[in-house]
Amino acid sequence: MSAAESDVLPRLAALLRERGGLMATLLPEEGEEGGERGEQLRGGGAPAGGPAEGPAQLAAAGPRASADPAEYELLVEAIYEGYLLHYGAPRLLRVPEADLALLAGDQLYALGLARLVGLGDVPAVGELADVITLCALAHGAGAPELAEAVWAAGAYAIGWGATAAHQRAKELAREGSSEALAAMRAAAAGAR
Question: How far apart are CA 169 and CA 83, in angstroms?
Fold first, then answer.
């Protein structure tokens, strides 16, 4: 299922409203746009010219997620939205200041990881923890393309299982190697 066909952002918004608290206060009123790309709530999907399949849809499409693909899609989307609050343009929340965006992003990381722990998928917990860490390293090094490749390879590993090539790509990224981007893209290419 492509991101354009998915209802995951409205489902995530409903979950946050149900939970209440800070996160619910950052959601737009129903029918209003969310973050900088809030139009996705109305029409779903990636921004114009963006990828048709996001990390959540990729992870949920794999055989490792086949027992509950909707839950995998939701929890990966929560973590990805947390990532966007840290490094990009959130699609769901209205966050008026940078410190609050970091706090909200951390809460979404925790929400997604807690739901994954509830599924008992320890290898996927490790993969998403690595995605979060490696993306932080990539952005710290001024390498947003590497962070995108980390997400694609990580989503593939969650859905299909990590390969030796993926493990090597993660090592290269941790080391700050100039080969990390190509290795991560090759690991993600297994999804194609």
Answer: 20
